[in-house]
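Try this one yourself first.
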């Protein structure tokens, strides 16, 4: 049997069969005097098993190891591990579908609808702050889902959002920042406002490892006017000190 005939019987391409030879999954058969490979029934059976195992989700390296173990012990372990992995994927898919169902049930889908339920709950509790600073604040909150340790940040913020004094202070800080929109970077209001911002940041929310040169920090500062950005630079330096 030539390689083309073998490919037709097993539903594999001749390229795949040659690749299995190269990877050590299928032994090289005897060759005819003319140099062509001569395949037999044993090769058909081996390829059928390789195909079944790869369709189950085993990698070629795992298939090779399984075929090398004549007692099937390694194969049992591999299949059990694969089943565990599929169970985790299945649970993750169910959770994603449940989240999608919740979103699709909403009458009004907004840009921030796709954020995590935890962050969505925090945004729902935050007071509405108008103006560019308020809009920027909510945009930054939606980026928390992509940040490492976002769960801790959300939990820390949630512990403060229901405090009336904290809410009033945050709204006052937003108004003062708005007043600096057209100010110069040496405006005398910057230093005292930076000190107030630093004092208002919950403990543990900003650590000494915060890098003002990080791309995220740079993007935030570039979204502000020069004077507003200077407020946050000074505030972060004070928190890190």
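Now uncover the answer:
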């Amino acid at each position: 049997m030539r390689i083309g005939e073998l490919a037709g019987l097993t539903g594999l391409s001749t390229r795949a069969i040659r690749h299995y030879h190269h990877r050590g999954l299928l032994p090289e058969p005897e060759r005819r005097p003319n140099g062509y490979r001569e395949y037999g029934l044993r090769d058909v059976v081996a390829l059928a098993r390789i195909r079944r195992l790869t369709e189950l989700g085993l990698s070629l390296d795992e298939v090779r190891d399984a075929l090398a173990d004549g007692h099937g012990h390694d194969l049992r372990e591999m299949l059990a591990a694969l089943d565990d992995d599929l169970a985790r994927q299945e649970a993750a898919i169910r959770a994603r579908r449940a989240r999608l169902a919740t979103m699709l049930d909403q009458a009004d889908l907004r840009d921030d609808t796709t954020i995590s339920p935890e962050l969505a709950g925090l945004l729902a509790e935050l007071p509405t702050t108008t103006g560019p600073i308020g809009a920027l604040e909510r945009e930054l909150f939606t980026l928390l889902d992509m940040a490492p340790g976002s769960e801790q940040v959300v939990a820390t913020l949630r512990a403060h959002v229901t405090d009336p004094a904290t809410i009033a202070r945050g709204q006052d800080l937003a108004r003062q920042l708005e007043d600096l929109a057209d100010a110069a970077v040496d405006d005398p209001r910057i230093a005292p406002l930076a000190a107030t911002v630093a004092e208002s940041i919950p403990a543990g929310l900003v650590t000494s490892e915060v890098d003002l040169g990080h791309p995220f920090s740079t993007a935030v500062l570039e979204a502000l006017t020069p004077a507003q950005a200077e407020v946050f630079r000074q505030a972060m330096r004070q928190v890190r000190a």
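Discussion: The chain has two domains: 3-74, 111-240. The domain at 3-74 is CATH 1.10.1660.10 (Multidrug-efflux Transporter Regulator; Chain: A; Domain 2).
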